[in-house]
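We modelled the chain as a single entity of 133 amino acids. Its sequence is:
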Amino acid sequence: MQIYLDFDGTVVEHQYPSIGKYNTGCFEVLKKLEKAENKIILNTYRADCADGTLQEAIKYIEAQAKISLHDVEQRKIMPSPWNWKDFRMRDLIFIDDICLGIPLKISKTTGNKIVDWKAIDTEFFIEGIYSKL
């Protein structure tokens, strides 16, 4: 399965152009996804910028999560809604804070909405996304 992963508001809190605070639970889920042989593709608006922030995001994920990204989208692809019934049929998942219906939580640091990785981890387990573990 292809996992299209956003960066700001998903892996880290919004602090663009800086790298925000780590979003708790993200790396643990990414490691499980990689271990289950899913392809993790970075899909971020940083890809549309020529200021070097995309490379910083790539290095941050690979160094901190200790995973290898399968690919990086050259331009941001707008995510589809968070809908479990479509996932297996389309063989892709968008994990992005702007996905309609994705589990969100309020950041204690900024007060902004960010992806709720604990809820995603639970849904992935229930739906068998980690089935190759």
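As a brief sanity check on the tokenised model: The helical segments are 26-35, 53-65, 84-90, 117-127. DSSP finds four helices and six strands in the chain.
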